[in-house]
Amino acid sequence: MIPRTLAKELTLAASEYPVVTLLGARQVGKTTLVREIFPNKPWVSLEDMDVRARAETDPRAFLNRYAGGAIFDEVQRLPSLLSYLQGLVDLQGQSGRFVLTGSHQPRLQEAISQSLAGRTALLNLWPLTMEEMRAHPPFPATSFDCMLRGGYPRVVAQSLDIRRFYNGYLQTYVERDVRALIQVRNLSLFQKFLTLLAGRVGQLLNLSSLSNDVGVSATTLREWISVLKSSFLIFELIPFYENVSKRLVKSSKIFFADVGMVCHLLGIHSVSQLERDPLRGSLYENFMISEVMKSLAHWGRHPELFFYRDSHGVEVDLVIRHNGSFVPIEIKSSSTFSPEFIKGILQFRRQLDRPTAQGYVLYNGEDSFTLQDITIINPLDPTHRFAEIMAVGGG
Known about the structure:
Layout: H1 6-14, E1 19-24, H2 30-37, E2 43-45, H3 49-57, H4 59-64, E3 70-73, H5 81-91, E4 98-102, H6 106-115, E5 120-125, H7 130-134, H8 143-149, H9 153-158, H10 162-181, H11 187-198, H12 207-214, H13 218-230, E6 234-239, H14 244-247, E7 253-256, H15 259-265, H16 271-276, H17 280-298, E8 304-309, E9 315-322, E10 325-331, H18 343-352, E11 359-362, E12 369-371, E13 374-377, H19 386-394
Parallel strand pairs: 1-4, 1-5, 2-3, 3-4, 6-8, 10-11, 11-13
Antiparallel strand pairs: 6-7, 8-9, 9-10, 12-13
Helix pairs in contact: 5-6, 8-15
């Protein structure tokens, strides 16, 4: 098993709450992780039709068999079970009694909110971070190799054929999960939407343009984007504005949790292809922003993440806000540094006129140095100070 950073948070949560709920996309390693950390707990998969049938027929009797505690896997398959679990927890609220895993689907979220509010810790597991991948050599030679491979544990641990893995993953997701979540009459349209969305990573989300290209309404697109977010395949980055009400009406950006999936959707299957692709910069931006997001989540830190863009088009790719301080981060796929890279950060500092932690430029070059209190680093360099960003961002 590849060691997961979230293991520490999971263990801590189990010492504080009677129930721990671990959510995440398919095949990110939820089951492997909880069975490794809680080896003495019975493991019960609600994916099993016979098990699920017994739980549906007589939920109280089913739960009484595991009164001492258990791991209930894939609870999104039977969200109604949580209302009965509440009664069992309230009778005896010992810490770490039950561990739940599942996908963050609407019915499951509703069941957690209604039945387990205040009784469960909620943790999210994402694909592997670079730090986690380093524990399972060989580590990819370049950032582009890392991007193509993605971060799904089975691909990394078993050196699976990447194209075959993503083909199977996406086919299962679209044909099974999407059908279960929403009524999609034409699955090929949803697949087209996925590919077109992949081609827009790092761009301001324009639903009107996307609607015209996919051939469905903007309302339908909002529903589909919500499904991808609840499935942990994508996440949204909102723009930073000091005026919160103003910020909420501005366009956001969409990023994929796993950039390997983006490359696959776009038909990019080799490093040479990726290096020449016109979306190279956007894909590298997705890679780095998802890396920051995943790392913070796995370390149990939850600062706010934004991008910055002013009326003159000056941008900062990522801004971390925590405890009133801000960490501006610019991301460049170039292997050669240019002073232009820091202009957005300097402008952000001038506009903000508030405490700003040290800024960063993440790029593909070999040299690491500091310029105007901005640290320039290659995050793949084993001697880098990338962890500093996490430390400041999570405090």
